[in-house]
Amino acid sequence: MNTDILWNNFLDKIKERISPLSYDTWFKDTKLKKIDKNVAIIEVPMSLHKKHLEENYLDEIEEIFNSITGTNFTFQFKLESELLEEKINDDIIQEVRETPGVPYQSNISANLKSEYTFDNFIVGDSNRFAFTAARAVAEKPGKAYNPLFLYGKSGLGKTHLMHAIGNYILENSNKRVLYVSSEQFVNDYIYAVRNNDKNNFDRIDSFKNKYRNIDVLIIDDIQFLGTATKGQEEFFHTFNQLHDSNKQIIIASDRSVDDLKMLEDRLITRFNWGLTANITPPDFNLRVDIIKKKISHQEAAEDIPIEVIEYIANINDSDVRQLEGAITRVFAYALMMNKGIVTLDVAIDALKDKISDRSVYKNDVHRIQRIVCEYFKIDIEDLKGKKRSKDINYPRQIAIYLCRLMTNESFPKLGTYFGGRDHSTIISAYQKIEKDLKLSSQLQVVINELKSRI
Question: Which pLDDT score, from 0 to 100, does residue 95 have?
Fold first, then answer.
């Protein structure tokens, strides 16, 4: 079956059903790479295409393709880089199979993601200690801090650091590294026990060899070990053997060691033997640096205004995954609504339903905006929007005045909080309220009331 002819036939038919713009945007640069049993592998140019095709066109793709072939296929959409990595993986696996008895250690066999390195980890005040500790362990595994226990909420970079440690060790030594989740550890143990012949201990021996005959064990999400009593016992013995042999153990959790209430005390004690390092949510400056790094591969990244980057950083303050989602949303929105040009107005429109009450309370400027809006009974969207009617514009000017008075934000920075307004507009608003206060006792009462609420 010629995949090129087949896919060209499909493209001719899908082109008849959708607009030229939709075809050029979502289908023109796709390719049918291969058919594996009943799965059709489609190469797409961007991650955005994967998501959009799956969510909006999958039914039509299946209908047309299956009518052409007379067979029911399912579809997988993959980037060129993913297909290349799969080919490399297959070649490595085949090489291992053809050379029995020869030890082989790589990112793939260690379950490590090669793209996670120390070089592309963005360091700031919230993660500097954890980064430094991770780097020390990578340079001297089994000697620096053992175990190393990383903890913090999801999406802050724990997994990135763990993979970076593993990748660094593989690149700079011949040590054997293994990265797994605690769930995988428990599943492997259960499989070994349930499938072990009473007269043949191959399964148990294989399990012990996998987890104890290594130099570095990296185990993620240790909190999930709490529901597996037998798993805890087996991990206790694995930990002891590795630690007694000066093998490095690296553990990550979404909570501190002392908050792992479901784990046995003897495990808690051992986790405290080494070094614990907390990763907290990134501050504003770190969020800006992360966004700059994430968009650096985009076309015309240098043309993206700094106020767009600061706006995204302002309204996404919890974790890196949230930032990545916001970036993807802004670029997708710009592609579909503004010919790919990213502006502050585009970012505001793209993310307007992503501004949560949680971020409002955490940021002083947002808190002042909320209180002013509640006092004047207007929507916060209007405060940041383009309406210039007196019942909106004057409260906006009061909010700007209070934000400048009660926070350390600069005039340009305040502009990003108020719909991307120019700093001269912000200065003008501040000066107007400052002048009116000298003339209006009623305004003085309003300002004092708002200050007391703030």
Answer: 47
